[in-house]
Amino acid sequence: MGLSSGAVMTLFGGLVTTLLGALIGLMMWQFNSLSDRIDAQGDCIDGRVDSLGTELRAKIGDLRAEMQAGFAEIAAVLLDHTDRLARLETAAGLPRPTG
Question: What is the DSSP track for 30-55?
Fold first, then answer.
């Protein structure tokens, strides 16, 4: 009692359909898992970016403070030179420039 070719084809078709359904289900499950992992990595990256942004703002603030201190020192030196030049001009009897 052998199987007819029609029964074999039906059995084979059902087996292939079942395997394809299982493969598609497995792919959908993996895509969902991949989406979760991508979301987790995105959250991790967002946290790192926020941390780096905070660190960068702090360093920029420190640099700005150093620059302001340097500018204040330069302004003091320029003011001192301007004062010395004014005294030399006065001692030499030179007219003071206006404006």
Answer: HHHHHHHHHHHHHHHHHHHHHHHHHH
**Residue 72 corresponds to which tokens in the numbers above?**
């204040």
Q: What local confidence, expressed as pLDDT, does residue 7 receive? A: 84
Alpha helix locations (H) across 1-99? 5-92
The amino acid present at 34, given as its one-letter code, is L
- Give SS3 for 95: coil
Backbone angles phi, psi at 97, to 5 degrees: -70, 145
How far is the C-alpha of 38 from the C-alpha of 44, rounded, in Å?
10
Reduced DSSP (H G I as helix, E B as strand, rest coil) percent helix, strand, coil of the chain, to 5: 90, 0, 10
Q: How many other C-beta atoms can be found within 10 angstroms of the C-beta atom of residue 89?
A: 13
pLDDT tens digits for range 46-87? 999 999 999 999 999 999 999 999 999 999 999 999 999 989
